[in-house]
Design a protein that fits this description.
heterodimer; A: alpha/beta; D-Maltodextrin-Binding Protein, domain 2; nine-stranded mixed beta sheet; 18 helices; B: mainly alpha; MetI-like fold; 12 helices
């Protein structure tokens, strides 16, 4: 009897101890922030100040190390430690939540979790800050969150239509500049026994990217309209622009490969690289892998054409943007580092390997394959990823609903489903 | 064993204390903390959240996506449990016969178990995309000429097939161990009495295998109900929402859609479901064991 009683009370004590510890961790977070902010005079004894650069691009590790060496030579009092981890977005959220934020970090201004954290005041507001002076105005504009800039946009990503130059030449085809020409091109290719398009519709993510891109490109004022829908003030089914948008998605599939629903992103990439299709729509991030899969492939990209060539524009998302946490250590040194990373020369070094377009003024970057897209961007013919304002999870739902439409080919049902996904979402 | 006047029981308990402490801290405490969060609308990282009582639990029962996930998971579990255990039992019987190269065959059949689930998932992704469709086309089988994973009706089979291919090895080894425990003298006596191989299998071998079967069924059911890795590697819940398992939904809600409290409440439901099912299985199968009548 004694033994049992002892064990029981011991166990209960342990559990309550464990729960108290955990509760302590969860609740007492913000208290020690003040202490940390006060102790940033670490170099009073002459040792260099160490700052951590938490950057999310594993492919950029080498070029960032090069730049850090250059920075440290110019600033002997500061040491920068690069940190690149797997699953960086979750790690970043966790570290900022637990007041262990890295001094400088990269993130994506369209990321919903980042937006939420920024709105909660976890990130330094850089609107009209001298650090933003070098940024192209159109790009500063589209990377705003509720009218404020929280990060300096360095590198940009966009999407477009990849095409196989050899196939286009052998069939005497020109790059289509209108939607009608695109369909015409596809018909000619099909008649010649060539698969015009490949779609990677097995991944809802790929479809989501295409849907979001086309919504932003073809539906007038779509951001404010969807905002109304999410506030319960409008219905997607009442907007006449959505039906042609949905029908276009479906029409293009007629010119796709047989098993579009069974093709994943990697499969489509490999098949495009091996010349099995003339065209493939996805982001510029595939260039490197296509070249690795088939170094001999002669390809380039063109912007997805619109009904009217005058409306042509491309969706831009910020791919590398640097910011400072509100409760970070050594903010002065962190600013110096951002200033260094956003100069014309260093941005050119940084983007040189990946070949992405830049958000910084006068920077010459971008691979020859994407010159028509880079031109659109420097002309300011850009629009943001409209999904940036959607609550988390909605974009996945949109991708999945579109998969369903490709399976049952029912456009009206699709618009109804879209309406249920968006309608009144902000008030739920 | 009497240290400074303490009773032996107390001394023994003290010795287990480090293990008990770690177990409580890393296994029990998270369960209780998780239950606490399931009563909130916490998004996973905000500093503030509200208590919502059992609202999450009520909402889940009306959530079509959850109910679809539940029926997918149950159907998937049934397919995988039958598939895994029948393949495992047949191979265990074959590999218990006195074959030449028996050890080699046992190693070959065990091999899939040492691969990681994600690796196997990605491998089968390739099989389903570029290996099976041409075969299906040659044979004129319509549903096999496309990627099984791209069709909402067949995707469940594709995932289950992958799971069975990898998952039969462990139950097979357990069955082989069980078969070596069947007393030879009883088999010999049955042969002399004129019992056919089928009769010997059902009346002697199976009763001796019941403990192994219990373990295997419990493990396979648990594996089926908590399927996650294959889904992530092969379909990501798609096409449409046809392959969202419970584990996948919990992850989606908790991590991607920032509804941590809601996801945790779903996890508690799954925890209860697995607990009840395991309890029933063990009770039912325990009654059939040899010497338990």
């Amino acid at each position: 009897m004694m033994k049992k009683g002892f064990m029981k009370s011991g166990l209960a004590a342990l559990i309550s101890l464990a729960m108290m510890t955990a509760a302590g961790c969860a609740g007492g977070g913000s208290k020690n922030a003040e202490n940390e902010a006060g102790s940033n005079n670490a170099n009073s004894d002459g040792a260099p100040v160490k700052i951590e650069y938490f950057q999310m691009k594993s492919e950029a590790v080498n070029v960032v190390n090069e730049l850090i060496t250059k920075f440290e030579q110019a600033n002997p009092g500061i040491k920068v430690e690069q940190n690149n981890v797997p699953n960086p977005e979750n790690v970043w959220t966790m570290r900022v939540s637990t007041n262990d934020a890295p001094a400088v970090f990269t993130h994506y201004p369209h990321n919903p979790i980042f937006q939420k954290m920024a709105k909660e005041g976890r990130v330094v507001d850089l609107t009209n800050d001298p650090l933003m002076n070098n940024v192209q105005p159109a790009i500063a504009d589209l990377s705003k969150i509720d009218g404020k800039n929280y990060m300096v946009p360095i590198g940009l990503a966009t999407l477009g239509m990849y095409y196989n130059k050899d196939i286009f030449e052998s069939q005497n085809l020109q790059i289509p500049t209108t939607y009608a020409e695109l369909i015409e091109t596809a018909e000619k290719l099909q008649a010649a026994g060539i698969t015009p398009f490949y779609f990677h519709d097995k991944d809802f993510n790929g479809i989501r990217q295409e849907v979001v891109y086309k919504m932003g490109q073809t539906i007038p004022n779509v951001e404010s309209f969807l905002d109304d829908v999410m506030n319960g003030k409008a219905h997607i089914t009442d907007n006449p622009a959505f039906k042609p948008f949905a029908e276009n998605l479906l029409t293009l599939r007629q010119y796709g490969q047989k098993d579009n629903m069974g093709t994943g992103y990697d499969d489509a990439l490999r098949d495009f690289a091996n010349g099995k299709t003339a065209m493939w729509f996805t982001g510029i991030w595939a260039i490197k892998e296509i070249k690795e899969s088939n170094p001999d492939l002669n390809f380039a990209m063109f912007p997805l054409p619109t009904e009217n060539p005058a409306d042509l524009k491309t969706q831009v998302s910020v791919d590398t943007a640097i910011g400072i946490p509100a409760e970070g250590k050594n903010q002065e040194e962190a600013r110096k580092f951002i200033e260094f990373m956003s100069t014309k020369e260093n941005v050119e070094t940084y983007l040189g390997t990946a070949g992405y377009p830049s958000g910084i003024k006068d920077v010459e970057s971008g691979l020859p394959e994407i010159s028509s897209l880079t031109q659109l961007i420097s002309d300011g013919k850009v629009y943001p990823t409209i999904e940036r304002l959607w609550p988390p999870g909605i974009n996945a739902d949109v991708g999945k609903a579109t998969q369903e439409m490709f399976l049952n080919k029912d456009v009206d049902q699709y618009l109804k489903t879209l309406d249920t996904i968006f309608y009144n979402k902000f008030n739920q | 064993m009497n240290i400074r006047g303490l009773k032996p029981g107390t001394v023994f308990f003290m010795m287990t204390l480090p293990a008990v402490l770690l177990y409580c801290l890393f296994f029990l405490a998270p369960v209780f903390i998780g239950f606490y969060y399931s009563l909130t609308n916490w998004d996973g990282f905000s500093l503030s959240y509200d208590m919502v009582g059992f609202q999450n639990y009520i909402d889940i029962l009306q959530d079509k996506r959850f109910l679809n996930g539940l029926s997918f998971t149950l159907l998937y579990t049934v397919i995988v449990v039958f598939g895994k255990l029948s393949v495992a039992l047949v191979l265990a019987l074959l590999l218990s016969r006195p074959l030449k190269l028996r050890g080699l065959f046992r190693s070959i059949y065990f091999f899939p178990a040492v691969l990681s689930m994600i690796t196997v998932g990605l491998m089968f992704n390739q099989f389903f995309y570029s290996l099976f469709p041409p075969i299906g086309e040659k044979l004129g089988i319509e549903w096999l000429s496309l990627n099984l994973l791209g069709n909402p009706d067949t995707a469940i089979l594709g995932i289950a097939l992958t799971n069975i291919w990898q998952g039969f090895a462990i139950p097979m080894v357990i069955f082989i161990a069980g078969l070596s425990n069947v007393p030879k003298d009883i088999i010999e006596a049955a042969v002399i009495d004129g019992a056919s191989p089928v009769q010997r299998f059902f009346s002697i071998t199976i009763p001796y295998l019941i403990p192994m079967l219990t373990v295997n069924v419990v493990l396979a059911v648990k594996g089926g109900l908590t399927v996650f890795d294959y889904i992530v590697a092969m379909t990501n819940g798609g096409p449409s929402k046809s392959t969202e398992s419970m584990g996948f939904l919990i992850y989606q809600h908790g991590m991607s859609e920032m509804k941590f409290g809601y996801g945790t409440a779903e996890a508690i439901y799954v925890f209860i479901l697995i607990g009840v099912l395991s309890f029933i299985q063990i009770k039912l199968l325990a009654r059939k064991e040899v010497g338990q009548q």
